[in-house]
Here is the input.
Amino acid sequence: LLGDIGGTAIYLVGMMGSGKSTVGRLLAETLQYRFFDTDDVIEKSLGATVSQVFEENGEEVFRDIETKVLQELSQYARSVISTGGGAVLSRENWGNMRHGIVVWLSGKPETLASRIQGKEKDSRPLLSGEGSDDALVSRLEGMLEDRTKFYEEADLVVDLEDAETGEVLSPERMSG
Ligand code: S3P
Here is the structure.
């Protein structure tokens, strides 16, 4: 899909549960690129989880740190960078991501929810209040509505569901 990308960095953007980290890791392995996950970089450098940062410092501080991390990572050419779902909300982040190719992993709220439900949800401060399956799907629907215009700025879109069969694609197929 990406053809000859000549060492350019690849940024994966998309909603929580779209598989950015899993696909990113596989893609980096295939291309023999470095792999970075901005949430992981933040957690390692602060010694705190994303949830803790949201709780103790607030979302705004988290966003500032996310921007600094993206800025730092823009120095690496042969890299796959999986971003947090909200990274696309900042103009400054786009300025950094434009050094590379931006790929949007796009999926339906139901697909995202099925991947997040359970333990995964607790590590996402923006979703932790949503108890039932329906509440989680509605919350994701709302977020997707607000964010679609930003995700659409990506250079490439990869759908999580097969357009004809509706089947959800495995990370292996998406990164291949
Ligand atoms: C967020 C997504 C999370 C994380 C934070 C905020 C968002 O990353 O950065 O909880 O605003 O969508 P993932 O997309 O990797 O879950």
Notes: The domain at 10-175 is CATH 3.40.50.300 (Rossmann fold). Residues 133-151 form the longest helix (19 residues). Strands lie at 10-13, 34-37, 79-82, 101-106, 156-159. The longest strand covers residues 101-106.
